[in-house]
């Protein structure tokens, strides 16, 4: 799951080395927190959050190993 | 993008040496000949080595295709990608067992993938492309569904004599509805709302 997020985001940003994805497991959900370089913020959010929405759609569609809900937090 | 200069006995040898240093193939580079070199007398006297400047160029289509493969792979869906290029439009066709995962409800996952592929493809390329990502003929089936929906909703608008609003759709799906009802002179269509909630409205 973490690899999927990284694969997508790496291709979108200008500074792929600054991508950080952290994973926090809570009772009923797994939260992935994504941070990118300050200059790349717009590239992962997009106009009206269009890119962020597309990333989330793809990530949520991927089957997770656990049965927990997945949540993607950007910035 | 990387750039190096290399030399060799002939232009061909110089290019080969550059490709080895860059660890790439001929399709991925631009070659500029700086000096063609000279054979010289008996290959010894007055011979000049050939110099070339080799620049790696990104193959946008290949990058996008690899991206699509990576993403579907990481989603644990095995899918074959077939790429068709016609001028500025590229179609990636996905085929595989668990393809339903990639399509999602009303194609929302497929549309999200298509949008991301579009972004990757046009990120820093020179050429602008439009992209369609299709999966097991989904786009064709969806088109048929939308066409029959359009006719049904036009009939509904006429029989109720009221405007009928459809559910929100992406631009290329709205276009299908508009073009189908273009020939129907009893109704007119327009789109209302702001993306991502923009939807077709049919008026009697």
UniProtKB/TrEMBL annotation, chain A:
* Function per UniProt: A probable RNA chaperone. Forms a complex with KhpB which binds to cellular RNA and controls its expression. Plays a role in peptidoglycan (PG) homeostasis and cell length regulation.
Q: Could you describe the subunit structure of this protein?
A: Forms a complex with KhpB.
Tell me the gene name. khpA
GO MF annotation terms: RNA binding
Asked if the record carries the keyword DNA repair, the reply is: no
Q: Does the keyword section mention Chaperone?
A: yes
Q: Please state which protein family the record places this protein in.
A: Belongs to the KhpA RNA-binding protein family.
Task: Spell out the protein name for this chain.
Answer: RNA-binding protein KhpA
Tell me the GO BP annotations in alphabetical order: cell wall organization; peptidoglycan biosynthetic process; regulation of cell shape
Q: Where in the cell is it found?
A: Cytoplasm
Q: Identify the Pfam families for this entry.
A: KH_KhpA-B
Per UniProt, the keywords (alphabetical) are: Cell shape, Cell wall biogenesis/degradation, Chaperone, Cytoplasm, RNA-binding
Q: Which InterPro entries match?
A: KH_dom-like_a/b, KH_sf_prok-type, KhpA
Coiled-coil segments = none
From what superkingdom does this record's organism come? Bacteria
Listed under GO cellular component are: cytoplasm
Q: Which PANTHER family match?
A: RNA-BINDING PROTEIN KHPA, UPF0109 PROTEIN SCO5592
UniProtKB/TrEMBL annotation, chain B:
Gene behind the chain: khpB
Q: Could you tell me what this protein is called?
A: RNA-binding protein KhpB
According to the entry, what is the taxonomic lineage of the organism?
Bacteria, Bacillati, Bacillota, Bacilli, Bacillales
State if DNA-binding is listed as a keyword. Answer: no
**NCBIfam families tied to this protein:** Jag_EloR
| Predominant location | cytoplasm
Provide the R3H domain boundaries. 140-204
Record's family? Answer: Belongs to the KhpB RNA-binding protein family.
Where does it sit, as one GO cellular component term?
Answer: cytoplasm
């Amino acid at each position: 799951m973490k690899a999927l997020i990284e694969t997508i985001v790496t291709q979108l940003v200008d500074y792929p080395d600054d991508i950080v994805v952290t994973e926090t497991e809570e009772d009923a959900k797994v939260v992935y927190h994504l941070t990118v370089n300050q200059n790349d913020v717009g590239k992962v959010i997009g106009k009206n959050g269009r890119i962020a929405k597309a990333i989330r759609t793809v990530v949520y569609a991927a089957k997770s190993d656990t049965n927990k809900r997945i949540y993607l937090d950007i910035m | 993008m990387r750039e190096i200069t290399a030399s060799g006995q002939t232009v061909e040898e110089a290019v080969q040496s550059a490709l080895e240093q860059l660890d790439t193939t001929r399709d991925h580079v631009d070659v500029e000949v700086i000096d063609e070199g000279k054979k010289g007398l008996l290959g010894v006297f007055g011979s000049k080595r050939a110099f070339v400047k080799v620049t790696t160029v990104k193959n946008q289509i290949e990058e996008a295709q690899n991206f699509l493969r990576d993403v579907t792979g990481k989603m644990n869906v095995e899918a074959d990608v077939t790429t068709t290029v016609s001028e500025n439009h590229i179609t990636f066709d996905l085929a595989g067992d668990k393809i339903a995962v990639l399509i999602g409800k009303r194609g929302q996952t497929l549309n999200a993938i298509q949008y991301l592929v579009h972004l990757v493809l046009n990120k820093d390329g020179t050429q602008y492309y439009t992209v369609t990502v299709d999966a097991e003929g989904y786009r064709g089936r969806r088109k048929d569904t939308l066409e029959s929906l359009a006719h049904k909703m036009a009939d509904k608008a006429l029989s109720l004599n009221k405007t009928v609003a459809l559910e929100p759709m992406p631009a290329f799906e709205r276009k299908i509805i508009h073009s189908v009802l273009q020939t129907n002179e009893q109704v007119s269509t327009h789109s209302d709302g702001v993306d991502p909630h923009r939807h077709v409205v049919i008026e009697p």
